[in-house]
Amino acid sequence: MEQIAWNAAKTIVLVDDEDLVRRLVLRLLEREGYRVIEAATGEEGLEILSDCEKVDLLLTDVTLPGGLNGVELGRRALEERSDLKLICMSGSGEEDIVSDLLARTVGKAAFLSKPFSPGDLVKTVRDLLDTAREPQRVASYFEGQGI
User: Fold this and answer.
1) What confidence tens digit (pLDDT) does each residue in 93-109 have?
2) Rounded distance, CA 124 to CA 122, Å?
3) At CA 63, angle to CA 37 and CA 128, rounded to 5?
4) Sign of CA dihedral 114, 132, 34, 32
5) What is the number of domains present in the chain?
6) Whole domain around residue 131: which residue ranges?
């Protein structure tokens, strides 16, 4: 129960042009308690990031239609939001394209190769968003003990 409460405060912007993939990832993350806002293009994702006050994670496909791919979307988003975390995902073996961005954002970004399991997705998301989690767990424990 504590897990759901903690995740509910976390907002993820999900950008993928494949409807089926986007819907599946959206449902999975919502079941884990995250608030997910979806977009089908890099431009839509950038607009959402500009409009939303609090976003914790950008989860984007590398290959997107239009002029703004996932890597460029990630670069722009990280430049504008220093506290944002980033996961780039791709089924085309495009980790090399993302490697420079990942190297410059150690601890703030990850690559997820498609196809991935639900467990791999959730673990990757949790690993990036986990930094504020431990103190909250400790506080919740003591509150329940009447301390």
Assistant:
1) 666 667 777 777 777 88
2) 6
3) 50
4) positive
5) 1
6) 2-144
The dihedral built from the CA positions of residue 72, 129, 44 and 46, taken in this order, carries a sign that is: negative
- Rounded distance between C-alpha atoms, residue 147 and residue 145, angstroms: 5
Distance CA 111, CA 98 (A): 8
Segment holding 70, helix H or strand E: helix 70-80
- How is residue 75 written in tokens? 């670069």
CATH code of residue 121: 3.40.50.2300
* CA–CA dist 77, 85 (Å, integer): 9
2-32 confidence digits (pLDDT tens): 444 445 589 999 999 999 999 999 999 999 9
* Distance separating alpha carbons of residues 133 and 15, to the nearest angstrom: 25
Instruction: Flag whether the pTM goes above 0.85.
Output: no
